[in-house]
């Protein structure tokens, strides 16, 4: 189906209202991005942050007459300093096919691959995680997930217990089990993430070794390895909870951290952990630490 998009330049404080107006005028979807292309890496917990000048884009079916929409927006008091907009036609493509064509098996470290179902497995003798990309949960393409998978690939996980804190798709827990871990526990605030994790574990033949929990009923245990690929803010706020999962002499791997955030994250854990040098990929950081005995 062909589409047309209307992009409006808006003061940051009015961006959500203008987004609501676009939806009220028939937009099928609304997105927000910085007019200066400055990304927000980590808004405060529970807070939706906008930029000083925001581009609000509404997506409409291509046969939509945008003239009445633009007229309605111009009447709004939100544009006291002028109304700037542009329209673009989007090519009619088979987006699902294009998305599938561009997702290939990816290797992490020496042994580990993540392979989508519609591609041939490059190395049948490797450790292959069968995982299709989805809308919300990780598939290994993000640098933070890649860093964690690469670290797991380099470890001897035989008979170990692993906690995947913020499990998402379950990719890290599943990878750990396929690499030899005896038991994995996935914890996430999103029930859909827990469902996705178990479905992916079933597909990879490790469902009997994986347990998943919401934070409200998370278990009491001590793990040999804890992997927390979330964000710097939650890593600091949840430091006590995450630390309690790590056995004495156990290992903690944290990602979702920017280079400038390293000191703050380390400060939340350094009393009980000894840190290795940070690993960096595309401005994102993975921290590895061992809990003191």
TrEMBL record:
Protein's GO biological process: methylation
Reaction catalyzed: L-lysyl-[protein] + 3 S-adenosyl-L-methionine = N(6),N(6),N(6)-trimethyl-L-lysyl-[protein] + 3 S-adenosyl-L-homocysteine + 3 H(+)
Compartment(s) where it occurs, according to its Swiss-Prot or TrEMBL record: Cytoplasm
Entry keyword set: Cytoplasm, Methyltransferase, Ribonucleoprotein, Ribosomal protein, S-adenosyl-L-methionine, Transferase
Residues annotated for S-adenosyl-L-methionine binding in this entry: 145, 166, 188, 229
GO CC, one annotated term: ribosome
One term of GO molecular function: protein-lysine N-methyltransferase activity
Keyword Thylakoid: no
EC number(s) given by UniProt: 2.1.1.-
Gene3D superfamilies: Vaccinia Virus protein VP39
Chief localization: cytoplasm
Top-rank EC class of the record's enzyme: transferase
PANTHER family: ELECTRON TRANSFER FLAVOPROTEIN BETA SUBUNIT LYSINE METHYLTRANSFERASE (PTHR43648)
Stated family: Belongs to the methyltransferase superfamily. PrmA family.
Protein task: Methylates ribosomal protein L11.
This protein's name: Ribosomal protein L11 methyltransferase
Organism: Pseudidiomarina marina
């Amino acid at each position: 189906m062909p589409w047309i998009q209307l992009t409006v330049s808006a003061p940051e404080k009015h961006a959500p209202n203008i987004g609501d107006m676009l939806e009220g005028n028939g937009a099928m979807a609304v997105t927000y991005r910085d007019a200066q292309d400055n990304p927000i890496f980590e808004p405060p917990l529970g807070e939706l942050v906008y930029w000083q000048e925001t581009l609000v884009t509404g997506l409409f079916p291509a046969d939509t007459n945008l003239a009445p929409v633009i007229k309605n927006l111009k009447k709004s008091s939100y544009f006291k300093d002028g109304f700037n907009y542009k329209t673009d036609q989007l090519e009619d493509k088979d987006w699902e096919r294009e998305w599938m064509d561009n997702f290939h098996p990816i290797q992490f470290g020496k042994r580990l691959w993540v392979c989508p179902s519609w591609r041939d497995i490059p190395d049948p003798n490797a450790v292959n995680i069968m995982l299709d990309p989805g809308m919300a949960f990780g598939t290994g393409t993000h640098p933070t997930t890649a860093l964690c998978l690469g670290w797991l690939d380099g470890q001897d996980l035989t008979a170990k217990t692993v906690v995947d804190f913020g499990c998402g798709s379950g990719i890290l827990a599943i990878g750990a089990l396929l690499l030899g871990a005896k038991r994995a526990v996935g914890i996430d605030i999103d029930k859909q993430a827990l469902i996705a994790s178990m479905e992916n574990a079933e597909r990879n033949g490790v469902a009997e070794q994986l347990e998943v929990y919401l934070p409200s009923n998370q278990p009491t245990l001590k793990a040999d390895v804890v992997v927390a690929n979330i964000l710097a803010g939650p890593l600091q706020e949840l430091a006590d909870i995450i630390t309690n999962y790590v056995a004495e002499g156990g290992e903690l791997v944290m990602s979702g951290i920017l280079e400038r955030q390293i000191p703050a994250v380390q400060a939340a854990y350094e009393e009980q952990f000894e840190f290795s040098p940070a690993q960096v990929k595309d401005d994102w950081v993975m921290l590895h630490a061992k809990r003191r005995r």
